[in-house]
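Dig into this one:

. . .
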Amino acid sequence: MISALMPNYNRADLAFERGDGAWLFSTDGRRFLDFGGGIATSALGHGHPHLTQAIAEQAAKVMHVSNLYRVPQAEKLAARLVENSFGDSVFFCNSGAEANEGMVKMIRKYHAENGHPERWRIICFDGAFHGRTLAMISATGNPNYIKGFGPAVDGFDHVPFNNLNALRDAIGPETAGIVMEPIQGEGGIRSADPDFLPGLRAAADEFGLLLGLDEIQTGMGRTGRLFAYEWSDVTPDVMSLAKGLGGGFPIGAVVTTEAVARAVKPGSHGTTFGGNPLACAAGNAVLDVLLVPGFLDQVAARGALLSAGLKTLAGEFPQVITAIRGRGLLIGLKLELPNTALQAACLEQGLLTVAAGDNVLRLAPPLIITEEDCHTAIRLLRQAVQELAKTKVAAQ
């Protein structure tokens, strides 16, 4: 008999009843160091007093009113995102996939409103992940996600990541924009080359395209700056956010320039739940913490500490770990053995991690981790790697 909860996930037989900072406590009394962060979502960890208080206080007042009316909490959050980014205007939704759908719609609508409705195709990149809606699995382009759901949604052209020549070759009269992740998360923590984002900006400007950045996983402080594009001199025309934006509470956003925002007329795009008072109260609470002077510097420092320890570990066990990838607190371990095997070994040691593509194990802990948490994670990971290395030797 099928379970009442649809079995579309391969869930670990593990349930959590509470959390404290970077730690989670299971219903059977075990303690786990959370270096998966709800897949780069629990930006402030678990039970953060400021975030939980903001949510509780807002829930006691009003949770939902709909976008038929002004939402002061959304107005405040939008103004703060604008103040701290390239953008001029923000649309709120509920998830990363919705944010990416909104970003694509805005790119197309911009061209239609400016006399070029024939420009509707989007160039995306191999190894990307943009969400699970019908359009976004097509934007992602992974056949495993598309299989069984009928023909792919038209309008997305794919080229190799970090290949500017292929990008330029793919531009045609119907091309409207380019959408990419500064660091491919699900694709294996693959970072854009230093010249790639500037090259995309140059191509977009030359051909009159819009540049869209999917910062759902890299945004909201994850890399040590509020947005990953800030590591370059490049600004996009439109950007999608989610995950860490609500610290675990569902919220997504599209941040864009005035020129793009003006193309989105009343009635052309909307959402019932998006930007409701409760979600935006959570978003504002997260920003309260992230924007404290020095906080993002601390994220970068913790990331450097982790990466240094992981590189040492890789040097000790080259038969298991072949490379360390990523930036800040979005780190990938490229493995010689199956990433699911190391993920399971880490779980046995009390460390939560997340598998990613290209046989990479992903670490995306809460941004509030301490130096002690970093050292503990490396110790637990070393124990897991040692067990795997023994298994490999025994099997030979």
